[in-house]
Amino acid sequence: MNHFLNILRYAKPYKSYAIGHIISNVFFALFGALSFVALIPMLDILFEKDKVASIVKPVYTGISNLKDFYKDYLAYQVNLFAENDPQKALLLVVSLIISLFLLKNIFGYLANYFMVFLRNGVVRDLRNAVYKKTVELPLSYFSEQKKGDIMARVTNDVSTLQYSMLPVLELIAREPLMIIITILMMLIISAKLTLFVFIFIPLSGLIISRIGKSLKRKSDRVQKEQGVILSTLEETLTGLRIIKGFNAEEKFDNKFRESSNRFYNFSNKLLNRQNLASPTSEFLGILVISILLWYGGQLVLVDKSLDGSSFIAYMGLAYNIMVPAKAISRGLYNIKQGNAAAERIQEIIDTDNPLKDKENAITKNTFDSEIEFKNISFKYENDYVLKDFSLIIPKGEKVAFVGQSGSGKSTIANLITRFYDVNKGSILIDGIDIRDLATASLRNQLGIVTQDAILFNDSIKNNIKLGSEKATDEDVIEALKVANAWEFVKDLPNTIETNIGDSGNKLSGGQKQRLSIARAVLKSPPIMILDEATSALDTESERLVQVALENMMKNRTSIVIAHRLSTIQNADEIVVLNKGEIVEQGKHNDLITKNGVYKKLVDMQSFE
Question: What is the membrane topology here (predicted)?
């Protein structure tokens, strides 16, 4: 129930719709109950009861006589209008009943009308909140999660809430009001019979609640398995080339079938438990009505404390109370089902973001002097990847980091961009710890080109404008020229408006990388970070990309993480890393002369 209350917080912006919904439901419940009570004079007319006596205007003598006063007053008004003509009286009462049912349904529609905006608004805001938090969370969070499970939470779990827990919002006002107003009418007609009803309704509720006890656990299993299915599908689509190349289709097919079969079995158990709720509650409702018929019949035939027409109207009201009672029991049942989805969604929303900005974080719009790595140490899990690492990079210099895989080169790029925070020490830009800066202003100072050219299923123009939305078409073309990419873009059917497909798969590796460089060029940041930007390219593509990189790095501070050492020979400073520590440092020629680790790395690549 706590998760349900958390979801209700998202209804606050829509309180005007909630007020309209509640007011409409008050009238819906009132006219719904009155439409059954209006049957009493009609039945009296049909059975020609007290036709003459009712011409005398009744006198109100107190609440204990309210039922008789209401009946006699209504009969008096009917007979006064009908002038003792039963057909006219019947026509009037039928018209009254039709009017009451019409008003009931009008207000029922209005209640649903307001609820549509409230319910859909909550779903929209909830989905947006989950997506926003997903984007805000650090990369470390996603290294421990399956992409498919995250996708399942944003899509399937929100949809589960939409069709299980959120419909309960409609019940919060409508059904309790229906029950309260109907019970008041029932008490007025017969207090004895109503007290008798209260013995059996709680028993029914207890039985129904016991049926739904294990529903949350069953629903949770279904939703987790949906995440597994989506993860398998996402992995399959991403790695289809490898799956086919290694003849692994059958292996992945079996993996998907196993998950699909588990989902099938879990869903069967969940839905069969759900299906048990409706027939059980209906049978219990009929049981209560049958007992009422027996006991009410005793009051009419033996006790004579209740007349026939009032008893029939009472039975209509009793049935009227069973409908909302059944809806509430179904709603509680749905809350249990939706609780698992709400818990999974809330888990993402409540996840603490260790990289969020400090209060009053500094906004810095310029880079003036230097970047300093001051005694930093960092580990992803157990072992330190960087150990007591210190380095100063003056403004305007091109500094390259080299070393074997696992030496900590790419970690430096992850730390300066604040994808991760250091465990010890600090990284300073112009003497300010980057943890004290607003993350957005820090990243505005940085341009990133990664080993994998990450592009989106959109036009070339929109991909390049990612960091500079206000750029004109001329700016985009100029950036493409600097990145050595205009030579192939100008020959495309729609030039910069050409869609490049999912992950840019319509382009070659070199073309994609040059677009990534153009994107960084257009952003025009003072600090450029190149994380093995040419390592995945063939020789011809590497040459074109290297020219583009040289163009881009002019007059900028550059941090180059290099795999191919031929690309960084002109660097102002080359830093050689081994197991997270600096083992050599200097210019290319100086390091070759030292005949140390760097010379060995160069010789190995020359031999390759």
Answer: Multi-pass membrane protein
Instruction: Tell me the two tokens of residue 443.
Output: 């990243």
* pLDDT for the residue numbered 51: 47
d(CA 563, CA 182): 78
| Residue in the structure block whose two tokens are 């003598």 | 61
Q: Which two tokens stand for residue 265?
A: 């079995």
pLDDT tens digits for 203-233? 666 665 565 555 555 666 776 777 777 777 7
Give residue-wise pLDDT tens across range 477-501.
Answer: 888 887 777 888 888 888 888 888 7
CB neighbourhood size of 374 (10 A): 15
Mean pLDDT of the chain: 76
Report domain extents, the chain: 2-349, 370-607
Q: Which residues partner with 371 through β-bridges?
A: 393, 429
Strand order in the sheet with 581-586: 446-449, 527-531, 557-561, 398-402, 573-578, 581-586
Whole-angstrom distance, CA of residue 574 vs CA of residue 588: 7
Give CA–CA dist 244/254, Å, rounded: 15
How far apart, in whole angstroms, are the C-alpha atoms of residue 18 and residue 22? 6
d(CA 422, CA 112): 53
Q: For the packed helices 86-136 and 308-349, what is the interaxial angle rounded to 10 degrees?
A: 10
- Cα-based distances in Å from 556 to 398, 399, 469, 525, 527: 8, 11, 22, 8, 6
The least confident of 1-5, 302-306, 352-356, 418-422 is 1-5
Q: What is the CATH number of domain 2-349?
A: 1.20.1560.10
Residues 459, 461, 464, 469, CA torsion sign = negative
Q: Are 575 and 597 in contact (CB under 8 A)?
A: no
Q: How far apart are the first and last CA of the chain?
A: 64
- CATH code of the domain made up of 370-607: 3.40.50.300
Q: Are 161 and 7 in contact (CB under 8 A)?
A: yes
DSSP annotation string for 390-429: EEEEETT-EEEEE-STTSSHHHHHHHHTTSS--SEEEEEE
Spatial separation of the C-alpha atoms in residues 510 and 537, rounded to whole Å: 6
Cα–Cα distance for residue pair 476/393, rounded to 1 Å: 30
Cα–Cα distance, 352 to 344 (Å, whole number): 15
- Measure Cα distances from 434 to 51, 309, 361, 439, 531 in Å: 91, 81, 10, 8, 20
Distance CA 193, CA 321 (A): 14
DSSP structural state of residue 64: G
Classify the C-alpha dihedral 53-56-60-61 as positive or negative: negative
Taking CA 457 as the corner, what is the angle to CA 142 and CA 549, rounded to the nearest 5 degrees? 80
Return left, alpha or beta for 306; rule: phi > 0 is left, psi -120 to 50 is alpha, else beta: beta
Question: CA 42, CA 541: separation in Å to the nearest integer?
Answer: 91
* CA separation for the pair 583, 576 (Å, rounded): 6
